[in-house]
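Support reply, case 0932

Customer input (verbatim):
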Amino acid sequence: ILLPDEDENVFADSTSFEDFADQLGASQLSDLLEAAAVYCAEVLQRPEFSRPLVMRQIASLPGHGTTSREDYLRGFGTLLRQGRIAKVKRGMFALTDRSPYLAEARNLAG
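Our regenerated output:
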């Protein structure tokens, strides 16, 4: 028997960002950054998120603790320029409909 809360978030059983990224097939840093943003918005239910929150998700992955801050910032900037994420106010960002990972996560949830 499913309780209403469990039924609402299909990713509830995907407790870690690593599992979530695997479900989306994200492996390169740019893909992981976008997947981390989707994770923050959809799983953590934070539609507006900070850049450090996104970066902490990736830093938790095995083998990514040594990725340089500059690489993270460069990748995050690329997502902004591509219009996949947008700045909503100082220090806070949100996904846009141009994010294929957001669409994929919603398809998996739907």
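We compared this against your earlier run and they match. Two observations from our side: Residues 29-43 form the longest helix (15 residues). The radius of gyration is 14 Å. Please reopen the case if you see a mismatch on your end.
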